[in-house]
Amino acid sequence: MSDSDPRQDRLLRLNAALDDELDAAHRVELERELERDPQLRASLRRLSAVREAVRRHGAPEAAPASLHNAVAAIGRPKAQRWRVPLPLAAAIAAGIVIGAAAQALLFPSGAGDPVAVAVVADFARGELSNQPFDVASSDRHTVKPWLVAHAPLGVEVVDLADKGYPLAGGRIAVVGVTPVPTLVYQRREHWIALTELPLSLGGGALAAREGTLDGFRLVRWADRERGYVAVSDIDAVELSAFVAAFRAAAGTGGGEGR
Amino acid sequence: MISDAARRRYQAIVPPHVDDAYALARWLCGDPADAEDIVQDAALRALTALETANVEQPRAWFLRVVRNTALTWMAKNRSKLLAFAGGADDLAEIESVDLTAEGESPEALLIAAEDGERVRRALAALPPPLREALVLREINGLAYREIAEATETPIGTVMSRLARGRAALAKMLEDKQ
Hints:
The complex is a heterodimer of chains A (258) and B (177). Chain A has 258 residues and is of the alpha+beta class. Chain A is built from 10 helices and 7 strands. Chain A has a 7-stranded antiparallel β-sheet with strand order 1-2-3-4-7-6-5, with helices on both faces. In chain A, helix 1 crosses helix 3 (38-58). The longest helix of chain A is centred in the first third of the chain and has 21 residues, at 38-58. Chain B has 2 domains: 4-77, Orthogonal Bundle (Rna Polymerase Sigma Factor, Chain: A), CATH 1.10.1740; 88-174, Winged helix-like DNA-binding domain superfamily/Winged helix DNA-binding domain (Arc Repressor Mutant, subunit A), CATH 1.10.10.10. Chain B contains 10 helices and no strands. In chain B, helix 1 crosses helix 3 (32-49). At the A-B interface, helix 1, helix 3 and helix 4 of A face helix 1, helix 2, helix 3, helix 6 and helix 7 of B.
């Protein structure tokens, strides 16, 4: 680009003036040049004609209504997008799939593990309704009292935000007839649900065991006071990393039994 | 999982600019149905990006997403047809547009400018970076700094492309067909 060419320079400034992008000082200078120079005035008329032609003929029709609707829908939460009758159909389908998958459970404790089935069903329900928690808060001092008030079990709430798993909230899951506190952490666009179990349900094994149920991953372990199950749709490596971070922070027997 | 905050920002930034996005996508890819696909894709990308993106010029920001989506889309679907800013061939083509060249007659320009079909053909025939700058300026009505953001180009380059684009278009319209 030969920016030093004075004629090119003047044309660039002429374009900028046309676009209302020239500062006052340059504008005054250009106006003086236009008065003196008929060739520059011809150039201005020419550029104005082109500009009008593009503005008049170049604009396509407005976007179709279907596109406006599609774009607006993309911003709405899933639950709103699937109004009727999809939520019901999806919930029924998920119930059937989870029920059937219990037969093929890879969880080492064996097929039909009621804890795994219950926490995965609970997790799937949260995903479907896009409402994965009953109390939404990233503050463990808010989440803990809520959980303690709703489930008869002491609960360990740790903040893992600095490890990349901010706390999003908490909810109560039900295993059989026992309400169990569940913490919900966030990992990018995914949820990780961590359910704490009384020893009657989750005790026994101290070592972490991994499994999958209906496409969800689970990791289960226990310390001397209670059992834990983590459920998510993130991959096995990431879920293990989360479990390690939780165990380290909560001091739930990270070194024991492994 | 998309946060409520991102959804709120999306609703404020994306739906108001669908017509602009559609116009830009049409001029970049040349086909109405493809343009719809590109805008929808761009909207999805925007939603995800709004979890973290720092947006100062909403319209220019979304048009940049549309532009990048269109470039990806065209690279995938018709790599030979359109080359965009950055390639050496492209640069040579832009440089070859003489800012000071004039066509046969100024009167021919005024007559041709009345012919919508002819104007659109000429615009479509411009090298893509020049056409893109003109569309963002004249059809989307963006200021220079917004065009710079939308095309990820310095303002000096934006000015040069607009000037060259107009010069080339004027010459095409002045020349007899």
